[in-house]
Amino acid sequence: MSESSSTHHDSPPPPTNNADSETNTVTNDSESNTKCQTAIQSLATIVTTNIPSTISALLDDEPVSTAISSLLQRPDSGAGDNNLCRWLYDTFQSSEPSLQLLVLRFVPLIAGLYLSRVPLRQPQAGFEAVLLALYAHETTSRAGQAITVNIPDLSHPSIYHESTKGLTKNNNNNSTCLNIAVLSSTLDPHGTVRSTRRARIVGVALELYYN
């Protein structure tokens, strides 16, 4: 056998190609930009205040926030054909984090107005659509899990403290026992707001706002 045939030559590894990942990043940024610009242009047809050209500026624009709040406080603001409610719903459903953050800014006002008008029995399909969108988003995010927190039982000793009950055979384990407390129970999907669900749906929207 010849030397040339017995010698094994390793092929050099192919060069790393980042073109695909770079293309995906550019595409995602472009889609995000398009969503933001569409939302800004749509809002400009609803409020009379000058709208900033970027979503980051819009998030901090106090005159626009005041204008939106004023429109929400009108007597017919929660109706199903209300343009601002439709904008809030569509903007949150865009799944763009910055746009969702913009909608969340008005959740306390929407929740307060909605609940205060319930006894008046006036149509509030617009408000309900926004609240249901928030509720559905949180339901999906939790994936059927409750929000819990571990609370230590201080009646048991730990490396940081001694129990006032003293050390016994049952608690002399140098660790603090944990109790699981439920902060927010599991969520069931809801497509409509009924009187029995109203408090829960509004509560979840407020939980999303404060988180």
TrEMBL record:
Keywords: Cell membrane, Cytoplasm, Membrane
UniProt KW Cytoplasm keyword: yes
Domain of life: Eukaryota
Stretches the record annotates as Disordered: 1-33
Principal subcellular localization: membrane
Biased composition (Basic and acidic residues): 1-11
InterPro entries: Hyccin (IPR018619)
Biased composition (Polar residues): 17-33
Keyword presence, Electron transport: no
Localization of this protein: Cell membrane; Cytoplasm, Cytosol
Family of the protein in this entry: Belongs to the Hyccin family.
Name of the protein in its database record: Hyccin-like
